[in-house]
Amino acid sequence: MKEITLCGTSHLDPQGPRRLKKLIEKIKPHVITVECLPQDIENYTARHEKIIECKEKIQKRIWNPGNFSKRELGYANKDSLFLHLHSLLYEVWISSKYVQKNKKTELIPVEHPKLKGEKMKEILSDKGFQETRDTILVMILMSPKTMKKYADNDYNSVGSTNSDKKLLMVSERDEYTCKKILEIKQDKILHIGGLIHLFGNYKNLYELLKSKNANVKRIKLIDIDKE
User: Fold this and answer.
1) What distance in Å separates the CA atoms of residue 198 and residue 203, rounded to the nearest whole number?
2) CA–CA separation, 177 and 37 (whole Å)
């Protein structure tokens, strides 16, 4: 019988790479599905490798990742900045690296194809994404130890669909993801997605799959450290 595990992640979790690697190695899925477009897998993995190459440069002086001005980064803790950059998009590149080493496992991108071009610009201008940007600025001022504790608190909140526009967006994405997951033939599936899509207070991806009588369970990535 097909088993579907949904893993809810915090995109800003600096311990995300370690935790996700541990989870994947424990489950040993036949298929991993991630929130990205097909071209993103190679792009995000290459971006991560570039950040690793630039580690010394980042730690010797503030390196502008492109999202913030030099003024905004002027007071950043260099170790915390690198920790943030190192963990960026970890859901994709950790999965990609696992699949490269384990050829029997397949990596399938399940992001809605509408999420590109003008649609993506519209989403990125949303208030919630501005709040995320502000949170990052706060986190990189902290010491790495404090930053990790601060980020863990994010697992106590799953975000909100506080506008009709955002609810429509996440619902469309969940319906598309549900359809793609149910099309998979292999028996053991691990889906990695943002907390709101699995625990949000609406008919989220977990509830959609349950309504289709799927054999599905959901977990928060932070809970892997309890095992």
Assistant:
1) 9
2) 12
For residue 187, give both structure tokens.
């028996």
Backbone angles phi, psi at 50, to 5 degrees: -65, -40
183 vs 4, 115, 117, 177, 186, CA distance in Å?
12, 21, 27, 10, 9
Query: Which amino acid is it at 177?
Result: T
Nearest-angstrom CA–CA distance, 202 and 205: 9
Query: Angle, nearest 10°, between helix axes 78-87 and 38-53?
Result: 150
Q: In sequence order, what DSSP letters do the residues of 67-94 get, joined into one string? A: SS-HHHHTT--HHHHHHHHHHTTHHHHH
- The answer to whether the pTM exceeds 0.70 is yes
Rounded CA separation 106/93 (Å): 14
R_g of the chain computed on alpha carbons: 18
Report pLDDT digits (tens) over 2-27: 999 999 999 899 999 999 999 999 99
Q: Which helix (H) or strand (E) holds 193?
A: strand 188-194
Half-sphere exposure at residue 190, Cβ-oriented, CA atoms within 13 angstroms: 26
Q: How far apart are CA 35 and CA 191, in angstroms?
A: 9
Q: Give the dihedral sign, CA 128/133/137/140.
A: positive
